[in-house]
Amino acid sequence: MSPTPSRGKRRRTDDSDTEGSGSALDGAGKADSVKPQPKRDIELGAPMDQLLHSENFFCRVCVNRQWHEHLPPPSPPPSPPPERQRVALPSHRPNAQPNTEARVPSTSPAPAATNQNSQSSAPTSFTWLSQNQFTTPLTRSTTISSPRASTPLSGVINMSGAGRGMVAGPRGPRSRFSTLSAEVDDAVSLLLRELEYLGDARQKIAQLEDVIVRLQQDVRINENALILAQRNAASSSQRNQEGLRVENERLKREMEDMGRLLGEEKSRSQFHKADADHWKSQAQSKQTELEELRGKLKNLLGG
């Protein structure tokens, strides 16, 4: 791990962001000339008009950045040309010489410069750990969040925060990912889009789960209806089979009765037939006797 760079090396200026050159001491001089001094707390013994001052209704950060007088822009300015987007790391920048001339401070009033600086930059909301040269994850800073609500990663990357392993830089007219390569920028944009679509995806998943639950309920209802229909068919078939069995037994009993009656009638017919044969033989014998008696009577009368 490389040692922590000095405050002069870690602080960047507008020239180092746009041109990638210039010494850290010059940038520090300009930043010190533009940055307003923090205001002290109002003591308890102050007069009433001082207590009712308009600055007392704003936080210290807003007052230091002149946001109570001039609101910051709603979004960061457009990205600079591609050849100016690269920002040298502290390890790649030339070391500041002790005999380097200090940059002449601007002659414009401090509030105007502060207003321009606050309008040309958005509040910092993220810091980028560059110990392994842009390979560590992006972490949320503890400073005030950006007013931009279009994307989660709003504002510019904090390049001036104090801490070990952080890349220092000013809040100038730069893009959010001006220090990143095109591949990393595309990857971060893709991740942001995926995170934005995550809520819709979860809602769609919940809707699909509701549809699946309703379909499962319909399937169970249809299965229960099918089981009930099968039971009704089985019970009706059983009732039909029972009725057919009873009818078959009744017909079988009737057939047995008819067979018994037919046997009785057959035996009776045989009896009557035998009786008719007997009487027929008797009639023939009587006819023969009658013929004999008639012949005898004719003989007696003729003689």
UniProtKB/TrEMBL annotation:
Polar residues bias spans: 94-124, 138-153
Sequence ranges of Pro residues compositional bias: 72-82
Stretch list, region Disordered: 1-46, 71-124, 138-157, 263-288
Listed Basic and acidic residues bias regions: 263-280
Stretches assigned to coiled coil: none
Official protein name in the record: Uncharacterized protein
Source species: Trichoderma arundinaceum
